[in-house]
Every structure is written in C-alpha cells, then in structure tokens.
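Marked as duplicate of an earlier ticket. Keeping the data here for the record.
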Amino acid sequence: MPISIKPICDFLDSADLLKRVPKELLPLAKNRLPWTGYLVFTGDETLVGMCAFKAEPSEQKDVEIAYFTFPEYERKGYATDMARLLVSLAKESDETEIVFANTLRTENASARICRRLGFEFKGGVMDPEDGLVWHWRKSVGR
C-alpha cells in the first residue's frame, strides 16, 4: 500500500495522533521544510510511523535521516518507503550531496533498508545520543 508523508507541524493540534509520536521528536516540527519530521500514513489515512531529517543539512552538504514504523505495521515495507521518500526529498535539494543513516550495530531491518536503498556501510561511529552505531552513506549529489 502506498504511503504519504505529512509534516508534523500540520498536526500539532491533533492530540490523538501525537500520542503515538515520541516526545523527543516533536521539536523536529520547528524545522523548515523539507528538513523536518513527518507523520506517515497509508492510502486510507492510517498512521503507520514517522520519518524525519534529524537536522538541516550541514556545511558539508550531508543530512541524516531517521524512520520508524509502529510495531503493528512492521514488516510491510513502510520503513523502506519512508527512507526512499526522504532520500528523494534530499536529492531534489541543492543543499545536499550525501544522505546518511546511523543504525544499531546489528543486522536488523534498518541495516537491510540501508543496503536495499544503496547506502554504503562506512563502519562504526560514535553517536552522541545512541553511542557506537553503524554509519551508512548515500550520494545524492547531482
């Protein structure tokens, strides 16, 4: 089923929807488009997860993506579609040349998504929030 992404800022008055969004991700709603957080819906408007650019692109023209699917909707391809949409948004911008993702250091769904979408594994890096993680990069430059 196809998905659509809608900026979190459009839903700040929707308490029922925001109950599912981790509180630490709500500040992403303040970021300018497209470098913001998004709620992810199926064609029938079912909320299945969230995806985001964790910040605006850096001076080096790289930007980090993050995505998650609510447990009851996992293993249906939604996270892959979310990551693909974020990569497409970054590719459309003159502000980015590299999209990167950090994943847990295990062969999990996020690592498989990065491989499937052509991200290159760059090894372990220290993330200030998550500690040692695997680092993945994809060129989207023109």
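See parent ticket for discussion. The chain has three helices and seven strands.
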